[in-house]
């Protein structure tokens, strides 16, 4: 049943779930933190970077000095940056039937999976996810391809060599599987395998499973997924937010009555409250610009940047920043800003209503119109002509290893008037800055992660569990039972962050305790399949003769043929006995048709022990003795050396070779039971 | 009672007892009672009853009515109480047994109307009013009313129950007060009957073991000891001591909060006080233990802490934990000013405890036990507790703290001021606490300048203040400005502070906030800039005439806010700053006071906000006082100037004031439709009149004037002002431009003619004083009923 965890990154998950004979991949995240081990790719020749000294082993051996460079005590690989792919050995990925994507950040490994593993299935995602995901991929490919690098380092990956390297290179996992970035062609091919879906749309997979995307409130088109059969419901919650930002709010109610909840993509900075961080962002930006400094914001081309621009739109006048230019530089800047305005149906209510006025849902349109915000595909071309300082620049990539941001880091790093503000939480800002040291520029860390924090998770789990009271499936009882909700999550969520070991509030707190998984691990989902839905054909149903055995409960025996196709089960009338052709093959007929006549009547009811003993006595058994057992009673007929064991669902008569006695006793027992 | 009211009263009484008539507005009844109270206090109540027999009839009639409206019944009970408060009226009413039928057990108690809480409340209030003389107390004891009051203590209506408790306190206090000559012992026989009944009841309740009864008894005692400090209460406490003491020994503690309240209301034997105080300290000791801080030496609680009840409450849920801590901190904050009364006020451990709480709330504390882990999870980010703890931390600045703890306080305050997660309200409290600590630090410092520790604090503080002044959240900008204003007010003269401030960007940032989109922030920025400028800490001189400067002067900037800001708050702040500048003799203002005042009043006179205009008048008054001198003081040693010199000076001053058009402003303010403006103007003119009368300038120069001496009203003034205006318009333009449109003589004429004293009396009355008269009330009541009748007729 799975899940198989192919990624160790809790916010960039890639899990495979085997559910009712379907194999479902949940997200396809790409861990880009591996690129932090590489030197930045400068857009303009950087003497500083090209003159970094090569790294030598302690014994003075310099065979790695072409591949590894040293900068302020850190060692970097001088090569095209590489990414750490999801695990491909754990499971044969060509058997994956579908891939469900929850948001555009969680699909960045898609081309590696769809193009290189023999995958032949379908990918499901919402339209904004696909469109913005394409922009992110396009930007990534562009950033890397426009700075061709001749060298591709591989010596350092040798296990024996890697052992000798300083941390963090020494501890990097599975470096042999790290891959270079995909091409645009692969991106296009991968995206062509995606089928677009809308929120709450029910998608049947092979008749066995139904999957439904729900709004998760985190980003444009971001979704959680419900994966259910008739009797089991698995919720996949990935990258959700309860804050009021631009996307449609999170749909929590549809998660109710889940048996299993796979929880990934919580906030990466649980100790930072996004509101406080936005405040910090604004004040630091204002203080820098007032003093004539420039502000650099390394960011993705979509997501939090929309909210930041909206916040600045309200803020710049009060802070007297109206004359400061804001630049957004990305190969996809224009498309990103425009896409945001056209996906109205995926936006929060406030923004949706603006469309009817009609007004652009995001105020960045006005910033562009009034020339306060200008966007450019790169630093080359128009930008270099219009560039004015002091200014505020939004540009990628947040890892600071490629993209236009590298140029600004080199340009502004030497002055303490300038500030770099980190808002994206995906990369450690200290690691990101390492190859730029020593740095005079001010660094402010205001990670804005709107995804769920642990307090919100515990509220969400309560909410999901609260109305889980549902009638037990036994018709004879009107009791309700609470079916436990099993939470499955990455191991990182079950212990406090290493730096704050005392913060026991920073873990998932639920009952039963959450089950955790780690990279390359298989976890058995904690539910047993108990029921299967079977349809009865109308004519067969007509032929049933129910017998009421208790008020409101009727039983009937049924003889039928079970027909199973496409995971649907149907009971059909048995074929009529074929009139025996006057042939010699008559013997074979009984093999094909079940012999209904052999059926014994079914019994029901319970045996009242006292009355049974009275009846025995009436029939001449004088020495009857009753013992209570854990499961029922034992009636002893001492003289006859016979034992009648009465339990809830069985009755045994144990007597030595006295068939007459056994039959007599059996008939007495049967008197108390109903037959049908 | 005036004749007109006496004439109307019978009809009103008839309306009240008529079940068909319905007094819809019960506030009429309240007003009527208020009026009777005034009447009975002003004249003989017996005479009122005798001259208006309809009143006694009303009481009789209501008692007899079967289905009387509960409002009317309640009214009647209270009315009877008001009259019975006077001994002769009491006797008069007793003769007819009205009181017995109203207040004894045979009265409304047995009627269905008693179910209505308003009737029970009326009954209690009636009894309460009555208890002003011995006879009434005797009557209440005899007719069984005291027992009724006991039972009403547990009334389902909280208002009734609480009034019943207070009534018991009142009766006990009255009874004992009137016996004060007799020395008292704890022996029952020494106490008057009524007091014996009440005290016996309290003792019984304390012994009862049931929480509601104990709580009732404790509430009575709390109120009593809070209100009354006569010597007999000491004897009473000696009687109560064993009962209360045994309550404290019970496990679990019953009615704990009421006990705490009782101890807070009194300062009684040390042991009990210590116990009560320990109850307050327990949650904090628990917190300290959870963070494995030593409970201090001497400890917060000397005995080792094993009160599982407190720990259970703390850990049961977030809301109960926050609730208990907030309550504890609030109580302790109330106690702090009395800490000198408590021998063992544990200042240092309390300070450690509140700092530990703040560390838990910000995730800084390291838990030392499972209790700590849980507390940590509960308290992190809990704004309520953060606010209470910061409040208390601020209060604890008043007290001797060892320097290593002060370092800790400074650290934790900086954490809260710096943290992006501090909510605006938490931040505001953090600023307030910081201010208190800073000021207390400077108090302990012996030198005239700030101590090195404070200097260090300031160095860390200003970058934070800078950032907070740039916050996108207006509440934060606002509290940062308020903090800056306060700090400048106290430390504006200290070199260390000035240096730290001027080397930061704070003054420029504050100035930018004068243009903030949020009006509250603009107002705070105005106040802050006003303060900075007063202390010479503003980069921008306010020079009133610096129109040619590249940068607008602060004065012009504020004047622009005063004339153009669409919101009232910033404008009010500006005029206050201007008044302050003038009052304290701001150097830049003093250069040309006249021009300053003229310009400001010119703008203020057009302001639509009356508060701005009142404040403008205040500015005018300050200027007048500075020009003409204080109210005359009879200083025997003052050098007497010759009256001629004085009179010449006065004439010159008047000339100048006229030139400044100051009187234009004051006179039109006298005709202002907003009463506070007119009152203020009237006060100024009276001051002026006194000032001038002294020098004989008001004696009148011509015969014509004497006719209208002190008889004119504002209508006359308005006409006169219009006349002057017309006259001015007729003048050649250069004369009008000179602003000499008013002559001192004109001003003197107004001062002579207008009945300022009369005007002050009228203006002092609220605008609805006519509508409030009893006559109008009675007429209204009749009119309402009359209208109802008409409607009825319409229906048919």
TrEMBL record, chain A:
Annotated region described as Disordered, given as residue ranges: 569-590
UniProt xrefs under InterPro entries: Beta_Casp, Integrator_9su, IntS9-like_C, Metallo-B-lactamas, RibonucZ/Hydroxyglut_hydro
Beta-Casp domain sequence ranges: 305-433
Gene3D superfamilies, alphabetized: 3.40.50.10890, Ribonuclease Z/Hydroxyacylglutathione hydrolase-like
UniProtKB keywords: Cytoplasm, Nucleus
Domain of life: Eukaryota
Main location: cytoplasm
Cellular localization per UniProt: Cytoplasm; Nucleus
GO biological process, one term: RNA polymerase II transcription initiation surveillance
GO cellular component entries: cytosol; INTAC complex; integrator complex
Similarity remark: Belongs to the metallo-beta-lactamase superfamily. RNA-metabolizing metallo-beta-lactamase-like family. INTS9 subfamily.
Assembly with partners or alone: Component of the Integrator complex, composed of core subunits INTS1, INTS2, INTS3, INTS4, INTS5, INTS6, INTS7, INTS8, INTS9/RC74, INTS10, INTS11/CPSF3L, INTS12, INTS13, INTS14 and INTS15. The core complex associates with protein phosphatase 2A subunits PPP2CA and PPP2R1A, to form the Integrator-PP2A (INTAC) complex. INTS9 is part of the RNA endonuclease subcomplex, composed of INTS4, INTS9, INTS11 and inositol hexakisphosphate (InsP6). Interacts with WDR73; interaction is required for the assembly of the RNA endonuclease subcomplex in the cytoplasm.
Protein name (database record): Integrator complex subunit 9
Provenance organism: Sarcophilus harrisii
Automatic annotation (TrEMBL), chain B:
Name of this protein: BRCA1 associated ATM activator 1
Gene encoding the protein: BRAT1
UniProt entry tagged with the keyword Lipid metabolism: no
GO annotations of cellular component type: cytoplasm; nucleus
Keyword NAD: no
InterPro entries, per database record: ARM-like (IPR011989), ARM-type_fold (IPR016024), BRAT1 (IPR038904), HEAT (IPR000357)
GO BP, sorted A to Z: cell population proliferation; DNA damage response
Classification of source organism: Eukaryota, Metazoa, Chordata, Craniata, Vertebrata
Cellular location(s): Cytoplasm
PANTHER family (alphabetical): BRCA1-ASSOCIATED ATM ACTIVATOR 1
Family indicated by similarity: Belongs to the BRAT1 family.
Keywords: Cytoplasm, Repeat
Pfam families noted in UniProt: HEAT
SUPFAM superfamilies: ARM repeat
Organism: Sarcophilus harrisii (Tasmanian devil)
Highest taxon above the source species: Eukaryota
